[in-house]
Sequence to fold (238 residues):
Amino acid sequence: MKLEQRYEGKAKRVYATENPHEYIVEYKDDATAFNGVKKAQIRGKGEINNAITAHLFPLLEAAGIPTHFVERLSDREQRVRAVEIIPVEVIVRNVAAGSFSERLGVEEGTELRRPVVEYCYKSDTLGDPLINTDTAVALDWAGEEELSRIRELALRVRDFLTPYFAGRGIRLVDFKLEFGRTHDGQIILADEISPDTCRFWDAATNEKLDKDRFRRDLGGVEDAYAEMLRRVIAPAQG
Ligand SMILES: Nc1ncnc2c1ncn2[C@@H]1O[C@H](COP(=O)(O)OP(=O)(O)OP(=O)(O)O)[C@@H](O)[C@H]1O
Ligand SMILES: [Mg+2]
Fold:
């Protein structure tokens, strides 16, 4: 049962339930970019991101990565374990793109010799600035051991998802994860994995199938999200 709303973000609402250790997350069609400067609705996005996350999280769980996912409840809703979100966005990159390319002057699409894990402070007002793990420890956002666990889990997510998407004709360029702390102190993967939070390029054409279509006004945003849901639930090719 959905009780009072606990948080409303740009893409989801989080509700308390009768179980203090569980929340219900409701996925919205709202989309924002550039720290909320650009706002619109992407028709069907809430249902698609709910479905993609609900498909991938149990697979990650089976691959040994603890997650907040409990069950999908409806088109837009899922039940999750309640966590205290660590205010650090964890970005894993396989290929140079976005802010990495801009910051370092590396052409988008450049394959990286090894995956790169980056950390940003989750703060809309500050524009999610880049930090390192020393910053997170110094400011009491997470402990040293929690951060090494987070890095290990983020790389395991990458090791699972990269071949998973490759088998479905998708180049997993980069993605953003959020981790949380359960009431008993366990670090688990929270939030979502969707075209809002990943860069997905068609492996054959490099066509973008993610939120960059919205950020960069490329058109075909709804179609790209729908195509990603089809690819995610499809069996692997070849
Ligand atoms: N299992 C969970 N327990 C508690 N909070 C969660 C859980 N999973 C996700 N959240 C939080 O729910 C909030 C709403 O999600 P949404 O994606 O809409 O946020 P957002 O607009 O991206 O903003 P934020 O910058 O806070 O992430 C976020 O703060 C997210 O960290
Ligand atoms: Mg979000």
Remarks:
- The radius of gyration is 17 Å.
- DSSP finds six helices and 14 strands in the chain.
- Residues 48 and 159 are 23 Å apart (CA to CA).
